[in-house]
């Protein structure tokens, strides 16, 4: 067995079971984890001391995962070397004066960045030709990382971190990050977060704007390495005799104290299940991520070993052991199903029966994300997005131009029973919407576009497809809601709240919760914004959220229980009132009397406000009247009463639409029903003078009525007419109020007669 005699400086995985390591003893050694064998690939010349290694990225979008075929090795003699998998040095390039301290391929494999002791940052082509010197400084650059879009480079400058875009003259971001020299950085392409490690014995997490998200306690020794897991959920930290596993928000899952000396370099395997560390004492340390936990209602699932899970039912303490043929890569527990992906297969367990899983083979090994809805689940891997039913039947695979599946996570993809939503990476203001059953884009491929970059998206889970809503948080931390189905009209995107950091929809009804600045807020009926925006504040539940400390995150919203993870990793469970969910249920099955009874029993303003909005949304005006009266909205009660007295069904409908602020729709409805005067009248009532005259002229009727009301309006305020169109039509016209009133009476009588004749014809039809 080959081992290293000197310090190991760098490591890199080719597959999930094979690793290359380089050492100051000039050897490059291959480790096979399946057979536990090692072999020497090549012995480098005695003057080459390797410093950093990075495998050429596997090409994205190729179905079968090809192995990495070559890597870049940087060394102390100022060169970098392009070396094949078999150990042949294809090319050595003079790159820097002094050691080349780091070399990294970009995500597409089209460019290489190297940094050196000479303080230079250089960009090279795939074949090792110099493209540009990006920057130059007076201090050595110890570490470098590409931005997620391969258009920016992050590098160290003493205690400072610098993000420099490749385009010339673009703004450079620079900030003081540590109190000691920064030794290592990493930038994750999925979550867009940055890690830094320094001689001040701390590691820190930053966002891509340089804002500090986490600052560790000082360790005993300098932090010599940090590395993100590929999916951006975890990261590893290496120091002297220390290996730590952390959540992306910074808190620690585990701390190990292996006898390794300093860990100079950490590499994650492609599937994110294990790490390798390059140790100062000549060892290579391997570690597997275990003890991951998933919870849903009364079930708790724990990954106890690489191929074993333990299921515990907390109600009766029943235990089940689940054994897998290959190692577990990803899992998800929700909607009474556990979905587990291993390196080759996908297992679907029902919580009712743990003994007989449904198993099917995967097209490609590494699943990076599993999302579940009530009827089906979604798998994301390096080459696509696949939707399966819980019976294991393949349903669809949505695609859009320039789709990069390697950077999708639970914040940027959302799934409901009928819709899949994906946030675009190329243009972060866009959300693509797909029909789940076919994978085809909704509304002839129209995407949803917002004015700012979007950070997080979430589809509601219940109700009819036509009412499906999507909530999202944008860069300014504003929360918006909009309809998924457009029906040809431009749907409004309406703001629900500000300073929202995290959100979740309930899995049992369309209730939304979020953490707002210092408050935990629940929107019991978010649809209120489309019905009666004035009462939205009355439909909310709010409580102080300062107990959750800084940067908490909503993990799940199951039934009426919300689970929140605090910044220190601890979980907090909040129970919200069960009554709004019962109200949703009554309304969805049109049990209006039960809904009113429930509100009378609970005696809470939020319940009545929700019922008022739900009733108007469903055109149930009798219930709406009771609910509005209960919350003291007397003007609205009077308006609803006036609607009841209207002569025709169309007029009633139009006024209900106006009640919700849909003026245009109300007008269209009246015009389609031939009620031209009523359409003109609603514009007069709303002082839409231009539109009222436009309609009167277009339909050659009631021009004098419009002019009369306009004149009366101006006289009330003691003003003169200045509108050219009104002056033009008023010329030589004598206003006779008697005549106008008679015309209006006639219109109303005509409408009544129409309404009663249509009613009687219906009755005749029934008698037949």
Brief characterization of the structure:
WD repeats lie at residues 93-125, 175-207. The chain is of the alpha+beta class and 768 residues long. The protein contains 13 helices and 54 strands.
Task: Please explain how this structure is put together.
The protein contains 13 helices and 54 strands. The chain has 768 residues and is α+β, with helices and mostly antiparallel strands. It has three domains: 8-288, YVTN repeat-like/Quinoprotein amine dehydrogenase (Methylamine Dehydrogenase, Chain H, 7 Propeller); 292-541, YVTN repeat-like/Quinoprotein amine dehydrogenase (Methylamine Dehydrogenase, Chain H), CATH 2.130.10.10; 649-758, no CATH class. The protein has a four-stranded antiparallel beta sheet with strand order 1-2-3-4, with no helix packed on it. The protein has a four-stranded antiparallel beta sheet with strand order 5-6-7-8, with no helix packed on it. The protein has a four-stranded antiparallel beta sheet with strand order 9-10-11-12, with no helix packed on it. A hairpin with a 2-residue loop joins strand 34 and strand 35.
